[in-house]
Amino acid sequence: FASDATVTESANGIQVENRYYRLQFDATRGVIASLFDKELGRELVDAQAAHGLGQFVVRSSATLEEEPMRVTRAIVAESGPLYTTLRLRGETPACPRITVEVTLYHTLKRVDVSARMLRDSTPNVEVYLAFPFAVDQPQFRFEAGGSVMEPVRDQWPGSNTDYYGVHHW
Q: Which of 64, 73, 75, 132 is the most buried (most CB within 10 A)?
């Protein structure tokens, strides 16, 4: 397979570009700063959002104060003719080990974000992963409890819509 992908590393982060996307990874903040879709000719990340794409959000349930992740390492983990994977490692007071991997496929119009964390027993702390896409009427489906659901539409009236336990997306 021939790949037209390029990887550029700088002090600001890592940029990966292929025939479908131009992805800019901010290694300081640990977020996807930009995901430009070349076929649509538009930016997919909402730059005005409070949190970045793929950002871990750790918040105190009692005070609502947020603790930013401290990035310990950001690297190009793999780069070849089929895909490039960027790996970020970081930590927060409640999560001593966080790993986020972003894979940009060169022969498919697809980007995968994989996140893993080690959560300690610190009480009253919530952990979220942000996906602020720049879309007019956002919709998503996910797997939870052995079924695929669309939030609100596939729920009982009056049931909780504050958060969802996503198994697969």
A: 132
CB 23 within 8 A of CB 16: yes
Q: Which two tokens stand for residue 87?
A: 């790996």
27 backbone φψ class: left, alpha, beta (φ>0; ψ -120 to 50): alpha
**Encoded tokens for 28:** 């300081």
Q: Which two tokens stand for residue 151?
A: 């939030």
Spatial distance between the Cα atoms of 103 and 70, rounded to a whole number of angstroms: 21
- The DSSP annotation for 23-89 comes to EEEETTTTEEEEEEETTTTEE-B-TTSSS-BT-EEEEETTT--EE--EEEEEEEEEE-SSEEEEEEE
Interatomic CA distance for residues 82 and 154, integer angstroms: 37
Whole-prediction pTM: 0.83
Helices (H) and strands (E) in the chain, counts: 0, 14
CA angle 75, 58, 163 (to 5 degrees): 115
